[in-house]
Amino acid sequence: EAGVTQFPSHSVIEKGQTVTLRCDPISGHDNLYWYRRVMGKEIKFLLHFVKESKQDESGMPNNRFLAERTGGTYSTLKVQPAELEDSGVYFCASSQVSGSAAKNIQYFGAGTRLSVL
Amino acid sequence: DAKTTQPTSMDCAEGRAANLPCNHSTISGNEYVYWYRQIHSQGPQYIIHGLKNNETNEMASLIITEDRKSSTLILPHATLRDTAVYYCIVRVRSGAGSYQLTFGKGTKLSVIP
Fold first, then answer.
1. How far is A21 from A4, CA to CA, in rounded Å?
2. Is A45 close to B100, i.e. CB distance below 8 A?
3. Regions of chain A short of the pLDDT cut 50
4. Which residues from B are below 8 Å from A when comparing CB atoms?
5. Using one digit for the tens of pLDDT, what is the confidence trace for A57-73?
6. Which residues, at least 6 apart from B41, have a Cβ–Cβ distance to it below 8 Å?
7. Is the per-residue pLDDT at B108 higher than 90?
8. What strand order describes the sheet that includes A75-79?
9. Which residues of A touch B101 (CB under 8 A)?
């Protein structure tokens, strides 16, 4: 069974450009999460989808970040326009269901390393 | 903010058991303890979780004290590939109903040959 897949693995862009990160969750997982680690900081939650709906987007830093999950399958996270402080590693995770502890295990992808120059 | 406290770093000899402690003195009765690890440049990897009983799987054992205020992750025979940052996380439900994971600084475990 394929794990969580993220693309690209690394993106280098200039300040002011737009970047779109993609996450393909484990098949059948309704829950999809985005996290990020910026330089020197801890991994922080960004938002949570249940199928195509945003359950919790309290961690989104500002309106330059837009996450979508059309059709409830893969998700994209767009940063527009990118700023220097957006540099870091963006992780995606997925889980089967929300409530059950056993089935809410979040499995992470390898991450996308974003470098804004 | 993270609800757990872990030592910053630990060393363990290869082949020996690695015991990683975690304090979570403010844990509530229905909150689970999860352990993840992050090997350099990879995504966090799930290890194990528990509520009040001790748990064991193919990767590790989790010992939770009776008062649930602390726990210990045990890697029974540490290998060099177990060198990683280990995160102890108390899973909480956000106001929006989301079970997000709150990562702290974790414990940097170095397995020494």
1. 13
2. yes
3. none
4. 2, 32, 34, 36, 42-46, 49, 51, 91, 94-105
5. 999 999 999 999 988 89
6. none
7. yes
8. A5-7, A19-24, A75-79, A65-68
9. 33, 35, 45, 93, 106
